[in-house]
Amino acid sequence: MKQTTLLLLLLAFNLFAFAEKDKKIIKDKKISRPGVYQGYSEAKYKGFKFKSYYVPMPDSILLAVDVLLPKGLKKGDKVPTIFYPTRYNRSIKAKFPFSLVKDPILVVVSEAEIEFFTSRGYACVIVDARGSGASQGLRKMEFSPQEIADGKDIADWIVKQTWSDGNIALSGVSYGATVAEMMLINHHPNIKACIPRSGIFDLYSNIMFPGGVCQGPFVDVWGFTTKSLDNNNYLVFGGAAKLVKGIHPVFGDAGRKILNKAITTHKSNFDVFGGLKSVKFRDDVHPGINACAESFSNHTFRKEIENSGAAIYRIGGWYDGSLAKSCTDGFQNTSNTKKVLIGPWDHGPQNNVSPYSATKKVEFSIYTEMLRFFDHYLKGIDNGIDREPVFTYYTIGEESWKSSETWPLKSEQKQRLYFSADKTLNASVENAKEGTVSTKLDYTATTGNTSRWNSVTTMYMNGPTNYADRKAEDEKLLCFTSLPLTESKLITGHPLVTLQFSADADDATVFCYLEDVGADGSVTYITEGLLRASFRKIEDNKMYKTGYPDHTYLRNEELPYHKGEEIELVMDMLPISYQMKKGHSVRLAIAGTDAGHFDLPSPKPDNFQFTLNKRRPSFVELPVVE
User: Is 347 noted as a catalytic residue in this protein?
Assistant: First the structure.
């Protein structure tokens, strides 16, 4: 989730890169409700004008709103609006004298993004969610029904503005993306489009409990980050935070007073993520909010989202935690998803993660792609985007873009590689040797501190997302490796792993890594899957359609695992498009942990054992396309 450290780095950049000091403060003006003020600053940005307001909600809570308009907008001109909801503070204020350089500092939605869209005839509206930033209110939970309902009232306010042409799109990244999509359930007639970037379709399985395994370290970091932001405490983030005064008030004395009172209230916000450690199942009720993950997850409202009629463009990355599934599953379950774009990216996206790329920079112009979508659905421009294939994706290794009307691909052919007792993978089950293979678990095994899981919130990152050669790490794991390929193999879809498995404890978490072994012995990460043994029951997903065998993670469908019990585990791996070269080998590596990323069962097992035979084989199933 994109915030804090990145924001502060952007602050430092903005302070010194845009030294345009002239500004004019307009005197406070009363608005319709007594005692509430608006004010705005004519900050000298390159291509837009900045204003800030407090907008009253029906329950009298005031939401802080930044409005950014095209600089050349004349009286009587009307433009469509891009509405960005956020709970990460819409803008911040630098300390004096740095505030003379740029005030406010735009961070949640970058100045570059605002410049891009305002210069192309769009207004941008960034809103602090109730109970966060400069907005009033108390946060009793994340993604609350009231927070979503506020979107309708903000949209009503937007269409009444003199500069609004009545057409609105929603967008955001991560939390903002998730809320933007959920706000479609309001069925507001003026909201015509939505572009969620790195959005969360299923809160339980896409972000908090992939494979039923809690991302405990992420929970801790995200909870610390949001609590610090709600307390207006930027110093904990170090570095450029020393230059930050804190949350930017709505301009004017009244705005500063309201902000100070709001921050006092926010210090009592409920720590929704603190209670997650007591949650195990999808339908477990969170202590303190009397609701489970299903109560505030986008997939629960997929029909209402679909019936909104707003066109959706889902944008994500193959290495974006487990959120590529949000793109594929969201596409399969909402007919109003008109476009999907999945690149070689992490969360945001912030980096190009392809091991074959010469740069970490995201060179694809995502803003341009968003503009094409907005232009068509908000301005009515016939630019052909509605006649293009729905699904556009990047193939790692081949380093090329492809498109499809479907996901999974119609041309997908499932190819199995069978586990053999000699630790090889075989194309024929008849050639696989029978027997048992045991491995002692190494609990230092990890995907590293620059993995896909680190990218999902900025304070968890340790530089650009990257997977180094896994040759040394694989020495800690149980590995099954194929013979060198006689021709290249294009893997596109959800690989599946089936294991005949046992462990010496009453539960286990199993991690499987699909890897590419080069002729020189180097090992390249492709994708991964994970599953808690007690969640092994396969069910048709009662929540929504998927392109893979799924586990519901419901309490009444748990199959408790008992020490020494031999069971079959079937897990999907995260979707990917990857070309393996001729002469390279396929590897499936198995671990009992991913240190630094996931919580472990207690007591944890010391050993895994796999029974390999032809009657009930273990295998990896690859989605291969010609």
Answer: yes
Active site residue 174: yes
Q: State pLDDT tens for residues 69-80.
A: 999 899 999 999
Return the closest-CA partner of residue 132 out of 277, 263, 273. Answer: 263
Q: Could you read off the pLDDT of 366-390 as tens digits, one per residue? A: 999 999 999 999 999 999 999 999 9
Q: Whole-prediction pTM value?
A: 0.92
Residues 360 and 470 in one domain: no
Give the pLDDT confidence score for residue 46 in this predicted structure. 64
Q: Which domain holds residue 238?
A: 5-404
Q: Is 469 exposed, middle or buried (0-12, 13-18, 19+ CB in 10 A)?
A: middle
Domains of the chain: total:
2
Contact between residue 85 and residue 42 where contact means Cβ atoms under 8 Å apart: no
d(CA 269, CA 222): 14
Q: For 299, how many CA atoms within 13 A lie in the half-sphere containing its CB?
A: 25
Residue pLDDT, tens place only, 285-322: 987 788 888 989 999 999 999 999 999 999 999 999 99
344 preceded by a cis bond (ω within 30 of 0)? no
Catalytic residue among 174, 198, 326, 451: 174
Is residue 597 part of the annotated active site? The answer reads no
Q: Per the residue annotation, which of 128, 150, 153, 320 is the catalytic one?
A: 320
Grade residue 89 by pLDDT with cuts at 50, 70 and 90: very high
Choose, from 347, 376, 551, 597, the residue flagged as catalytic: 347
Looking at residue 181, which CATH number applies to its domain?
A: 3.40.50.1820
DSSP 68-93: EEETTPPTT--EEEEEEEESS-SEEE
CA dist., res. 231 & res. 267, Å (int): 5
Q: Are 438 and 523 spatial neighbours (Cβ–Cβ below 8 Å)?
A: no
